[in-house]
Each structure stands twice: as structure tokens, then as C-alpha cells.
Amino acid sequence: MLLDTPICDFGWKAPDFTLKNPHGDAFTMSEHLGDKGLLIMFICNHCPYVKAIASRLAKDTLQLMAEGINVLAVMSNNYHQVDSDSPENMLRFAEQHGFSFPYLVDEDQHIAKQYGAVCTPDFFGFNAQGELQYRGRLDDARLQDAPNRVAELVNAMQLIAAIGKGPKQQTASMGCSIKWR
């Protein structure tokens, strides 16, 4: 089912969490909340929307990380129901698309529920104080690779890194619903 993300709740404080990647390495959100902010993305492997943006997502997040903005991705789908989202397939998907950010498993879906994530992809851009400043889309290209796209997520995270505030105008991300238990 196609869903849109809600509008940004500016200033909402990010709940801390610790999740593991498919190799079993633990990552704690608060340890990644750097002085230039943190992007948390809810994505999965099987969603056509995530598949369509995966190469642009890899490129954009690599740029953000090079600029000192931290990035974490969370997979919250019930992978017992959707095998293509299993931890083993997360590793394959991340390698296939060149993801350089930690890709974490939300086994009990607790983090997606705490954050109010509704779809994949769902982007949460936080400032250095852990306050939500962006809940928009990756870019204006939608499902196509557009050479003249506006990289809205990159622009928003750069603004957050510079002044601690996100853009007032944001366009909702859209994607597949999270597959709940």
C-alpha cells in the first residue's frame, strides 16, 4: 500500500536506541548523533520505491557522511513474512547498491513504532541536539533517475548541519507501508 509520511514535527526529540546490523554489531543512535546531525532512514530491500532510489540514496548518503553528517538505516519490516527483507538479504542489498552506512535490523519493530515510521523510505533528519528538522523525501525525481534532480534530503541535512534548523517547506516521502507483525 502506498503511503505518504506525515509533515515534520519540528523539535520532536529522537528516542535513543541500540540495534544490530546483520553481522551482530550493535549501533547506538545517541553515539551517532554528531555535531552536524544525524539522518535516520527506515528502508527495506523489497520495496519498489527503495529499489528505485537505492543508487541515488547510496550516493547522497556518501556525500553527507563525507561532510560529517552521520547516517543510520533501519529495516523494520517483518522479514519472517517478507523473506526478501531478511538480514541475509539486507547484506546482499547493501552490497549491491554500495551502502556505506550501517543498515540495522529492528527485529521487534519497536523503533519504527517509537519513531512513527509509516513507509519505506521514511527519512528523519535530526540536528546535533537530537531534534527532528526534516521528514521529507530524497529528491524530486521520484522513481526515475533524473540528471537535474533537486537533492532535497542532501540540501536539508546540509542546512541542519549549518544552522541546526531544517527547511520550512518539505515534501513528504512516499513508499510502501511497513510490514507489521
From TrEMBL:
Listed InterPro entries: AhpC/TSA (IPR000866), PRX-like1 (IPR047262), Thioredoxin-like_sf (IPR036249), Thioredoxin_domain (IPR013766)
Domain Thioredoxin stretches: 8-159
Record-linked PANTHER family: OS07G0260300 PROTEIN, THIOREDOXIN-DEPENDENT PEROXIREDOXIN
SUPFAM superfamilies registered for this protein in UniProt: Thioredoxin-like
Protein name: Thioredoxin family protein
CDD domains xrefs: PRX_like1 (cd02969)
Domain of life (superkingdom): Bacteria
Gene source species: Shewanella litoralis
Residues of the signal peptide: none
Pfam families (alphabetical): AhpC-TSA (PF00578)
